[in-house]
Write a structure and sequence with these properties.
The chain is of the alpha/beta class. The protein has a domain at about 15-235: 4-Layer Sandwich (Metallo-beta-lactamase, Chain A). It has helices at about 55-70, 85-90, 105-110, 115-120, 195-210, 225-245, 250-255, 270-285, 295-305, and strands at about 15-20, 25-30, 40-45, 50, 75-80, 100-105, 140, 145-150, 150-155, 165-170, 175-185, 215-220. A 7-stranded mixed β-sheet has the order 1-2-3-4-5-6-7. Strand 8 (about 145-150) and strand 9 (about 150-155) form a beta hairpin. The longest helix has 22 residues, at about 225-245. The protein is globular and about 60 Å long. The two termini are about 15 Å apart.
């Protein structure tokens, strides 16, 4: 069993705890690649509200320990911004004494998740001793307000985008946005489980909130300028997919032929294969967020990666 210390890697800096506004903390794991996500929490005089957890036992315990070192107040609520395992595996450290809150589709996805399948997809990750992830117990469809003391946190559904069930945690009084994986800062956006078109529709809504500080799902805390990079990448995927479909190319062949240009320096470039699969599904008339062949997508990303397992330092 692991304790409250994040695993060390010569390739990575240790996680950091950043107070981005009084009483509002971001727990940042760089370099933000596969399973190195961010989380956070808000401390009031009465209680704590947490936002997301982490993907492995050791990293989840380290986040939980950082929270407990900061405040001994009860954690009344835990918000899951979406269903992916890197944001939900650590739910077990908060349940059942904490109300876990998410979009209704997030609950469905968590209930159907398979830890063994994830271990097969990321054989280099040290997931540790993880129990089945506790599912959200409070769900909503479009909007829900949560209060950390007197501080209002607006939960707003933005999906399908990165997934079918993306929400953001917006703190208007502080102009701080916990974006979940609607923002990858320095990493390749990944739409396999969501919608390229839906994500593009979400970007103007994110801008309109008026945030000044963004806690992204992956990467360093940033400003709203990050929306421009995410949007350009998604438009690049859409344009590339349209040309590839017209040329009769399969997503993997198209990915291999595509010059990433300005996006070549983003982490996890193999995600282009998964993104093209999603874009193809939509361009062929599939609904936003419709099911696609996930094993094939991961196989194509591995093939794009030279047949090697996807780089995962979690």
């Amino acid at each position: 069993m692991s304790h409250g210390h994040a695993p060390e890697s010569a390739e990575l800096p240790p996680p950091t705890l950043e107070e981005v506004s009084p009483g509002v903390f971001a727990y940042v794991q760089l370099d933000g690649s596969w399973f190195l996500n961010n989380a956070g929490f808000i401390v009031s005089d009465e209680a704590v509200v947490a936002i997301d957890t982490l993907g492995t036992e050791a990293r989840s315990r380290a986040f939980h320990a950082a929270l407990r070192r900061t405040s001994d107040k009860p954690v009344q609520a835990l918000i899951n911004t979406h269903s992916h395992a890197d944001h939900t595996h650590g739910n077990f450290l908060f349940a059942p004494q904490t109300a876990i809150i998410a979009h209704a589709l997030c609950r469905d996805e968590v209930l159907n998740a398979s830890i063994p399948a994830l271990r097969r997809s990321f054989p280099t990750a040290n997931f540790g001793d993880l129990p089945k992830t506790p599912a959200p117990m409070v769900t909503f469809a479009e909007r829900l307000n949560v209060f950390a003391g007197d501080l209002k946190v607006e939960l707003i559904f933005m999906g399908p985008a990165h997934t079918t069930n993306d929400i953001v945690a917006w703190i208007p009084e502080r102009k701080v946005l916990f974006s979940g994986d609607l923002v990858f800062n320095g990493g390749t956006p990944f739409a396999m489980a969501g919608s390229v078109a839906g994500w593009l529709d979400a970007i103007p809504r994110l801008r309109d909130l008026g945030a000044e500080t963004i806690v992204p799902g992956h990467g360093a805390v940033c400003t709203p300028a990050v929306f421009d990079t995410v949007e350009r990448y998604l438009r690049f995927i859409d344009t590339t997919a349209r040309k590839g479909l017209e040329a009769g190319l399969e997503p993997l062949d198209l990915a291999r032929q595509t010059d990433l240009g300005e996006f070549a320096e983003l982490t996890d470039p193999e995600r282009i294969a998964g993104n093209l699969h999603r874009a193809y599904a939509e361009l062929r008339g599939g609904a936003r967020g419709c099911a696609i062949d996930v094993p094939t997508v991961f196989g194509d990303m591995i093939a794009y990666n030279g047949g090697q397992p996807l780089r995962c330092l979690a």
